[in-house]
Write a structure and sequence with these properties.
With 180 residues, the protein is mainly alpha-helical. The protein folds into two domains: 97 residues, Ferredoxin thioredoxin reductase catalytic beta subunit (Ferredoxin Thioredoxin Reductase), CATH 3.90.460.10; 32 residues. It contains six helices and five strands. The strands form two sheets. Strands 4-3-5 form a three-stranded antiparallel beta sheet, with no helix packed on it. Helix 1 packs across helix 2. The N and C termini lie far apart (47 Å).
Amino acid sequence: MSDEARCTPEEIDELYAKLEHDAEAHGYHLNPDREFTRDLIEGLVCNTKRLGYASCPCRLASGQRDDDIDIVCPCDYRDPDLAEFGCCYCSLYVSEEVLEGRQAPHSIPERRPTEEERAAAASRRSVSVEAADASQPARGSVPPLPVLRCRVCGYLCAREQPPGKCPICGASSDRFERFL
């Protein structure tokens, strides 16, 4: 590792504190194994220094932010992994069940599409954007993900499953309803 990519214990501690605060404030939890979590956070700090963005320390980044945007921490796959397996791919984030010891973290299958699948999807998106009038949504169009609404505060999110806790008011996931 080059000297500029090395990180100090202070940098790790600083990012750890920020991630822990942000996670808890938004209904998420960091892995309770502090040493394991420090190692992951060290990878995030090093990747940020090396690449200019905090790519997942457990995935191979291309070095091009646009190509890796889906694996910038927290990655696009965190929430479905938490919902299905109790932790994200690298186990930095864990569910409340894992945090409380009611579920053991285990390996997660890779959700990230292959490079070829990502290239094909990008090509399809560019064709559809060129063909559509960006100023007007298509009548009857369906969003790619369900839009969920917190019945307590009205917070909207586009995702398959509601968050464990509303990031605005703290309401539990069962207080969400499908909006679109």
